[in-house]
Write a structure and sequence with these properties.
By secondary structure, the chain is α+β, with helices and mostly antiparallel strands. The protein has 16 helices and 13 strands. It has a five-stranded antiparallel beta sheet with strand order 2-1-9-8-7, sandwiched between helices. The radius of gyration is 22 Å and the shape is globular. The chain starts with 18 loop residues before the first helix and ends with a strand. Its EC number is 3.4.16.4. This is D-alanyl-D-alanine carboxypeptidase (Penicillin-binding protein). One of its GO terms (biological process) is regulation of cell shape.
Length: about 475
């Protein structure tokens, strides 16, 4: 075991929304006051359990994945493509888009974020800033990483997209761009919503994207505490503080999701990412992660230097152990399928967006993408083509191509979007490609333009 010390007394308290109230109850003087407070706590717990857990708990299940971050090889997996609720792992995507906005100069670390009445009303855990107050981008980022602050996440979503619901659509679109084929985001924080789902494989893809695309900002995920306006705010990623070589990244918990964890560990040149979803307790979740890392870290590649693999999800199809397992993957009745959600909704930000991150994509362009003959069977003449991703459905692949073309600029003007089905049954995927480049240089130029927009891109000679 690479654990640095034994579990402390707080190991099982990760992100419980009622933990602060419980502590306040215990500190009250007088048995009568403590008893009254604890009765209120019990009522709150029962209310949340009845309102949230019952319809959603069926989705929570044990899932795990250990990935070699250098090669993209899956070292171990269990139910890696089964849908689960992400809980506060959702904030990893909120942070990814925040880092993207910082990189593009849309915001700075000191940009003020107004705390709306809606954001301030988000349930714990939270920074507790009152409606009408402000926090900086820096405070919001540290709040999300260390405290897992729901109010900070909602406020950030509103800042970047004008509304949290609009931001959630952007989050889902970015997930597709990164190769997260089965994830749907509905809010910026991870608070319970039956439609918000992900998989262990998709979360590993997001972790790799954070490490690869924003290495400097990624280091913030190792922060154990920060000072927020005169008080020290401490984190609760207990395993990170005790497991040698672990430098991130995020915990998550709701009654519906169980205890979730994404971790990254470095051992010399070896680099692995681990995901555990649906743990029964924080202790058992952390123990499972530690056991998996102990077993598989030594099997990771020690060559390849510091380079990390490109977006994992875009390179490998969605794998399910059997057709029976695929049919058993639970999907909330009121939840749109990820591909349908992406194709049916505009990827543009709300009209009143405060800080638009990317050039808007018109809804007509997304919807009409499926009506273009060349995106299904026909290819135009040309010696070269490029592939940007693979998706679980033709609609999702076409939507991704439409978005990429709107962002790629001049190098993609004459290129034609093209989807190609590969595999059979539950393993069938659709390659998302652009074809019709007259020369290798033209294809390279298109790839360069897309990579600047954080897309993966693979150059291919056209043998068809």
């Amino acid at each position: 075991m690479r654990l640095l010390s034994h579990y402390g007394t707080n190991a099982g308290l990760t992100e419980s929304p009622h933990q602060g109230l419980r502590i306040r109850c215990q500190r009250m003087r007088g048995q009568g006051m403590r008893g009254k407070c604890m009765r209120k706590l019990l009522a709150a717990v029962l209310t949340v359990t009845l309102a949230v857990s019952a319809p959603l708990a069926a989705l929570a299940g044990n899932a795990s994945l250990i990935l070699d971050a250098r090669t993209g090889k899956v070292l171990a997996s269990e139910n890696a493509d089964t849908l689960n609720h992400p809980a506060s792992l959702t904030k990893m995507m909120t942070l990814y888009l925040t880092f993207e906005a910082l990189k593009r100069g849309k915001i700075t670390w000191d940009t003020p974020i107004k705390m709306s009445k809606y954001a301030a009303s988000r349930p714990p855990t939270k920074l507790g800033v009152k409606a009408g107050g402000t926090i900086t981008v820096r405070e919001a980022v540290y709040g999300m990483i260390v405290k897992s602050a729901n109010d900070a996440a909602s406020a950030m979503g509103e800042k970047l997209a004008g509304s949290e619901s609009g931001f959630a659509r952007v989050m889902t679109a970015k997930a597709r761009q990164l190769g997260m084929s089965r994830t749907v985001f509905v809010n910026a924080s991870g608070l319970p919503d039956g439609r918000q789902v992900t998989t262990a494989r998709d979360m590993s893809t997001l972790a790799i994207a954070l490490m690869k695309n924003y290495p400097n900002e990624y280091r913030l995920f190792s922060t154990a505490s920060f000072n927020f306006r005169g008080r020290t705010v401490r984190g609760h990623n207990n395993l990170m503080y005790r497991y040698q070589g672990m430098d991130g990244i995020k915990t998550g918990y709701t009654n519906a999701s169980g205890f979730n964890l994404v971790s990254a560990v470095r051992d010399g040149n070896r680099r692995v990412v681990g995901v555990v979803l649906g743990g029964r307790t924080a202790r058992s979740r952390d123990a499972k992660m530690a056991g998996l890392l102990d077993r598989y870290l030594g099997r990771a590649s020690s060559s390849g230097g510091a380079k990390l693999v490109a977006s994992v999800g875009a390179r490998e199809p969605v794998e399910v152990a059997s057709a029976a397992e695929a049919s058993d993957v639970p999907v909330p009745l009121n939840a749109p399928r990820p591909a349908d959600d992406l194709a049916a909704k505009s990827l543009a930000y709300a009209d009143d967006a405060v800080v638009p991150l990317e050039r808007p994509v018109a809804m007509d362009e997304i919807l009409n993408a499926g009506k273009t003959p060349k995106t299904s069977a026909e290819k135009t003449n040309g010696d070269w083509q490029i592939q940007i991703s693979a998706a679980p459905s033709a609609d999702a692949a076409r939507a991704l191509l439409a978005q990429a073309k709107s962002e790629g600029g001049a190098p993609l003007v004459s290129a034609s979007p093209y989807t190609e089905a590969v595999g059979q049954g539950v393993n069938k995927i659709y390659r998302a490609r652009f074809v019709g480049f007259a020369s290798r240089d033209a294809a390279v130029s298109a790839c360069d333009a897309l990579k600047q927009r954080s897309y993966d891109c693979m150059l291919l000679p056209d043998h068809g």
